[in-house]
Amino acid sequence: MFCEYFEARVCRSCPLMGVPYSQQVRDKERASRRALISLDRPSSRRNPAQPPAAKSQFDWLPTYRSPQKEFRNKAKMVVSGSKKSIVLGLAPTKDHPAGVDLQACPLYVPAIRAAFAPIRAWLQRLGARPYNIATAKGEVKYVLVSANPEGELMVRLVLRSKAALHRIENTWSELQAELPHLRVFSVNIQPEHTTVIEGREEIILSSERYIPMPGIGTDLWLAPGAFFQTNTAASQAMYTQAATWARELQPETAWDLYCGVGGFAFALSSAGVAQVTGVEVVGPAIDGAKHAVTKLESATATVPVEPSNKNDGTPNIPSAAPRPHFITADATKWATNQKLVPPDLVVVNPPRRGLGPELSSWLERSGIPHLIYSSCFQETLVEDLRRMRSYQIRAAKLVDMFPHTSHVESVVLMSRAD
User: Fold this and answer.
1) Of 115, 163, 175, 234, which residue has the fewest beta carbons closer than 10 angstroms?
2) Is 376 an annotated catalytic residue?
């Protein structure tokens, strides 16, 4: 067993840690098949005559199997302990009143594990008191760290107030000196005593605002407050699958709803979809997506012009790939209020709560021929698909985003039955 936390029973974040990985995958596959095949049965006892939402005869593509360790590209660490003895990791409990330090957690990528000691030392020099959940006193609540495959880091400090902000502004360069790959550093203010980690105010202290993350066709640019999938390689598998399906379908227009930093949108553009619109309510995510478009356009503008073979002096200018267009808006409100001709394809990647009745019912009525649904919670996926009875599942792929847990991502391709 490679996890000392599991052996010591101080961390229950990976309940399947002791189960062989091949068995974990098989169990997830069986549970997923049962969930989607259940769509062949009536949707509820209250309306047993309602036709099924989909048929069970579709292609199950090979499951993406994640590395079993060093796959987490982000760490959300509770700051506990005392001013002179900082603990970064799990919140204090009765059995572990000082919290549990997760520096040795084997799931984090090496760049994040290496950042623990410098961050802890800097916080201790800072002298700000860790926030005490029981008494609702103290200043430093969380440290949020993200890393890309090159080891570049984004570090965010979540504070209860701005009391320590001046000291942080004057000393955070010390942390940067100890972490030469630290690119983005910010402070988030969360004054509420709540389980919601982040507040609305973000103060970026570094000159850089983004770190690049791998995408399909271009880098994706992650800003403080924007969401990116926890498992970088698994996210690539989802984007690649969507691009593969888009090449088969050859749609001219597409929407990417809940687009985040634009992973699916850029994947569709790389597959040749001429017009892609991404919609996301989180402003920093759209800022990153637009930054990626700017980077693409800048790169295209600097591509050297090669002489053509026509021998007439005509420059051989490379044709530019399509560029997605991004909008900051609530996905449900934006889609249901559209008066334009519906697109050929819609990709939805909703949070755990799913699409909900309003958007899924609108999609059912929309006439849109093809739909790709990326889901992190199969219960809400099934609920949404029951409302979209005109669509039939054509293919599904499981992506094991979180090994050693029961959670699994599903990417499902659907087309209208007619």
Assistant:
1) 163
2) yes
